[in-house]
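Hi V.,

Quick status before I head out on leave. The structure for the redesign project is tokenized and pasted below; the design run finished overnight.
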């Protein structure tokens, strides 16, 4: 795999904690593009995404946390426009955690325009996968992409955040996972723990 440039540790900010009422806590290893020394999103932006994901994943008894410092991505990834860039950005991937790469602009590689996020598999080794988020992402985008990480396809359930169709009801902030999706993610969670795709831990424990 191509290593994604200089992935130096930086931006020492307080960690976003996993809720105490969850059976399993999974680390989000976060990588953020910096331009002229400035991150393309701030810590509050990312923590709002994580908080939304933690609320929606409560029925799965799963929570997510990040630890400081974040990892720095070079400005060459600010506009991630190609499949090759999506593959290369995951150079710091490691088993056991969910890696989240945050860029300024994320192109739709299938049609013109930009997208908010994507769950991406390395084309050279599809067992390696990660999440990319654009700086324009909605607050629920991370939760949507983690849904894909947990095996969910796009959905036709109106209530579901996995449903991409434009609709006024329910409002984006009221969308959750359908009960069928929750059951599917519970099964997938067990499989990922067994295969050590994810390692369950809490930020306050060794």
């Amino acid at each position: 795999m191509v290593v994604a440039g200089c992935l130096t540790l930086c931006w020492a900010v307080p960690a976003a904690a996993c809720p105490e009422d969850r059976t399993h806590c999974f680390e989000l290893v976060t990588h953020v593009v910096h331009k002229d020394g400035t991150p393309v999103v701030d810590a509050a932006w990312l923590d709002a995404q994580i908080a939304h994901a933690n609320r929606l994943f409560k029925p799965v008894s799963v929570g997510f946390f990040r630890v400081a410092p974040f990892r720095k991505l070079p400005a060459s990834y600010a506009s991630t426009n190609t499949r090759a860039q999506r593959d290369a950005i995951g150079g710091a991937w490691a088993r056991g955690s969910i890696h989240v790469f945050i860029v300024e602009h994320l192109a739709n590689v299938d049609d013109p325009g930009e997208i908010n996020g994507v769950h991406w598999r390395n084309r050279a080794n599809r067992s390696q996968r990660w999440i990319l988020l654009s700086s324009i992402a909605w607050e629920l985008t991370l939760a949507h992409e983690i849904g894909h990480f947990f095996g969910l396809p796009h959905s036709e359930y109106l209530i579901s955040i996995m449903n991409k169709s434009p609709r006024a009801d329910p409002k984006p902030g009221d969308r959750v996972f359908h009960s069928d999706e929750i059951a599917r993610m519970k099964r997938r969670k067990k499989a990922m723990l067994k295969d050590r795709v994810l390692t369950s831990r809490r930020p306050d424990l060794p």
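Above is the designed sequence. The two ends are 30 Å apart (CA to CA).

G. will cover questions while I'm gone.

Best,
W.
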